[in-house]
């Protein structure tokens, strides 16, 4: 039995790309033959995958897991696979609503609308639907998918967990530094609302901590939005206190978590949000906007705000950092919550769902 995977974009240091590699490892460990097929392949991953046009393993003994997150010419190809007898599992990572990109990147907005249309087209082709969160599951149900099972992203939090065991992370007084250190990790994209983080940070510096700093880590999905965020930083007089780092090497990412006092996430649309888990595992408390899949991902292990007014967010961060007992309680909750996403457990959960479905399919065909 083969359980292969396919996806439009196979990128290195990408949450979906990392997930795909770990799913393959879990499937191979479970005794399945498993390859990765993609449309656009990062040259650094050329040895890990093959061009999807070269796929020639159709039949009832092959299952394809398609990772759904964007528009792709693979939709028609998957319909052909279904007609050839290959069973398709759709794993939904989420598609950002086009409304966030329409004013910034009309071309991207059109692609996102096309992706939503393809999402609906794939419902009849899909034999089993998996979703990274309950939020994603509900979107699949609305799009016409039948039985949908929540199977979390496979994330290796070991390096972050080791970082969180460092006492200097959990005890700010153990390191010399001036001012609180805010951190946001994620693509520079309109739905992630870095402009709201910058606005709240400006109020925080003016009213609470004039020595505070903010680091934004992540490459841009929209260069127009990135330029707008940079202009806002200048207009608010924050040039010397805000750093914007493009996609960074993994050791530097760990260093940014090590230095941070708080992760502030005011994103309005997340299908899961891996940086929330990374921060919690690393012992960095989280203040986040209550939207989309964020509450589900963090559970009771973050300070959730319902109002993104800059003053409200600034005071939420201050309340967290000013009270050592509250801060340590949130750190402990965060590490406990991150522990629920141990790779060994999530890998077992995903493979178990595939096994259960295959057994049911086998019984139904007798």
Which secondary structure elements does this structure contain, and how are they paired or packed?
Elements: E1 2-10, H1 15-29, E2 36-41, E3 50-51, E4 62-68, H2 74-83, E5 87-92, H3 106-121, E6 126-131, H4 134-142, E7 148-150, H5 158-164, H6 167-170, E8 181-185, H7 194-207, E9 213-217, H8 223-235, E10 242-245, H9 250-259, E11 262-265, H10 274-281, E12 286-289, H11 294-298, E13 303-305, H12 310-322, H13 324-339, H14 343-365
Parallel strand pairs: 1-2, 1-4, 2-3, 4-5, 5-6, 6-7, 8-9, 8-11, 9-10, 11-12, 12-13
Helix pairs in contact: 1-14, 5-10, 7-8, 7-12, 10-13
Task: List key phrases describing it.
seven-stranded parallel β-sheet, 14 helices, 13 strands, about 375 residues
Task: Characterize the biggest β-sheet.
Answer: 7 strands, parallel
Structural class: alpha/beta
Structure annotation, total helices: 14
Strand content: 15-25%
Number of strands: 13
Task: Quote the average pLDDT.
Answer: 94
């Amino acid at each position: 039995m083969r359980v292969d995977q396919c996806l439009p974009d196979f990128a290195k240091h990408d949450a979906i790309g990392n997930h795909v590699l770990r799913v393959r490892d879990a499937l191979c460990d479970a005794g399945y033959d498993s390859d990765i097929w993609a449309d656009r392949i990062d040259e650094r991953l050329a040895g890990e995958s093959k061009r999807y046009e070269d796929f020639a393993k159709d039949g009832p003994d092959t299952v394809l897991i398609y990772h759904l997150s964007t528009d792709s010419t693979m939709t028609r190809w998957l319909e052909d696979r279904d007609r050839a007898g290959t069973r398709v599992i759709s794993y939904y990572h989420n598609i950002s609503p086009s409304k966030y990109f329409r004013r910034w990147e009309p071309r991207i907005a059109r692609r996102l609308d096309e992706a939503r249309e393809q999402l609906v087209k794939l419902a009849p082709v899909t034999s089993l639907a998996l979703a990274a969160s309950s939020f994603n599951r509900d979107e699949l149900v609305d799009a016409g998918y039948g039985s949908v099972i929540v199977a979390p992203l496979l994330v290796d939090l070991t390096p972050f967990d080791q970082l969180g065991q460092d006492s200097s992370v959990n005890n700010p007084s153990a390191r010399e530094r001036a001012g609180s250190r805010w951190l946001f990790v994620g693509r520079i994209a309109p739905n992630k609302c870095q402009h709201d983080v910058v606005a709240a940070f400006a109020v925080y510096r003016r009213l609470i901590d004039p020595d505070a700093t903010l680091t934004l880590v992540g490459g841009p999905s929209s260069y127009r939005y990135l330029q707008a965020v940079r202009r806002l930083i200048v207009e608010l007089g924050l040039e010397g206190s805000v750093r914007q780092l493009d996609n960074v090497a993994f050791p530097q990412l760990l260093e940014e978590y090590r230095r941070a006092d708080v992760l502030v996430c005011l994103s309005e649309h997340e299908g899961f949000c891996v940086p929330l888990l990374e921060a919690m595992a690393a012992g960095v408390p989280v203040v986040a906007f209550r939207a989309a899949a964020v509450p589900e991902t963090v559970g009771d292990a973050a300070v959730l705000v319902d109002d993104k007014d800059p003053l409200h967010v600034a005071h939420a961060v201050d309340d967290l950092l000013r009270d050592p007992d509250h801060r340590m309680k949130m750190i402990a909750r965060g590490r406990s919550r991150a522990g629920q996403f141990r790779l060994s457990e999530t890998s077992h959960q995903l493979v178990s769902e595939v096994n259960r479905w295959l057994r049911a399919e086998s019984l139904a065909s007798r």
